[in-house]
Automatic annotation (TrEMBL):
InterPro entries: UCP037205 (IPR017136). This is DUF2256 domain-containing protein. It comes from Colwellia hornerae.
Length: 48
Protein backbone atom coordinates (compact mmCIF):
# COMPACT_ATOMS: atom_id res chain seq x y z
CA UNK A 1 0.00 0.00 0.00
CA UNK A 2 1.25 3.49 -0.85
CA UNK A 3 1.28 6.40 1.51
CA UNK A 4 -0.04 9.64 0.12
CA UNK A 5 2.73 12.07 -0.62
CA UNK A 6 2.38 15.75 0.11
CA UNK A 7 0.04 16.62 -2.74
CA UNK A 8 -0.81 20.16 -3.81
CA UNK A 9 -4.19 21.42 -2.73
CA UNK A 10 -6.54 24.25 -3.63
CA UNK A 11 -9.77 25.77 -2.35
CA UNK A 12 -12.95 25.21 -4.31
CA UNK A 13 -14.44 28.48 -5.61
CA UNK A 14 -17.98 27.29 -4.86
CA UNK A 15 -17.94 25.43 -1.53
CA UNK A 16 -14.60 26.81 -0.25
CA UNK A 17 -13.36 23.34 0.79
CA UNK A 18 -9.82 22.15 0.24
CA UNK A 19 -9.28 19.49 -2.39
CA UNK A 20 -6.15 17.60 -3.38
CA UNK A 21 -4.43 17.12 -6.71
CA UNK A 22 -5.68 14.16 -8.75
CA UNK A 23 -3.85 12.35 -11.49
CA UNK A 24 -6.62 13.15 -14.00
CA UNK A 25 -5.83 16.84 -13.43
CA UNK A 26 -2.12 16.36 -14.09
CA UNK A 27 -2.07 18.29 -17.38
CA UNK A 28 -4.45 21.08 -16.32
CA UNK A 29 -3.97 21.54 -12.55
CA UNK A 30 -3.45 25.31 -12.89
CA UNK A 31 -6.90 25.60 -14.55
CA UNK A 32 -8.83 23.52 -11.98
CA UNK A 33 -11.10 25.68 -9.81
CA UNK A 34 -13.82 23.36 -8.52
CA UNK A 35 -13.63 20.20 -6.42
CA UNK A 36 -16.43 18.39 -8.26
CA UNK A 37 -18.86 18.52 -11.16
CA UNK A 38 -21.61 19.50 -8.74
CA UNK A 39 -19.67 22.59 -7.64
CA UNK A 40 -18.78 23.44 -11.22
CA UNK A 41 -22.44 23.30 -12.27
CA UNK A 42 -23.57 25.47 -9.35
CA UNK A 43 -20.72 27.99 -9.67
CA UNK A 44 -23.07 30.95 -10.14
CA UNK A 45 -25.03 30.19 -6.97
CA UNK A 46 -22.16 31.08 -4.61
CA UNK A 47 -21.06 34.42 -6.02
CA UNK A 48 -21.21 36.96 -3.20
Amino acid sequence: MHKKLKLPEKNCHTCNKNFLWRKKWQACWQDVRYCSERCRRSKNASIS
